[in-house]
Amino acid sequence: MKLDDLTRLYVSNLKDMRDAEQQMTDALPGLVEKASSAELKAALKEHLTTTESHLDTVEQLLEAATGSKRGKKCKGMAGLVEEGKEVLESEGDPDVIDAGLIVAAQKAEHYEMAAYGSLKAFAQMLGNREAAKLFDEILDEERRADRRLSEIAESLINAEAAAAGSH
Question: Looking at domain 6-162, which of 3.30.70.100, 1.20.1260.10, 3.40.50.2300, 3.30.70.60 is its CATH number?
Answer without folding.
Answer: 1.20.1260.10
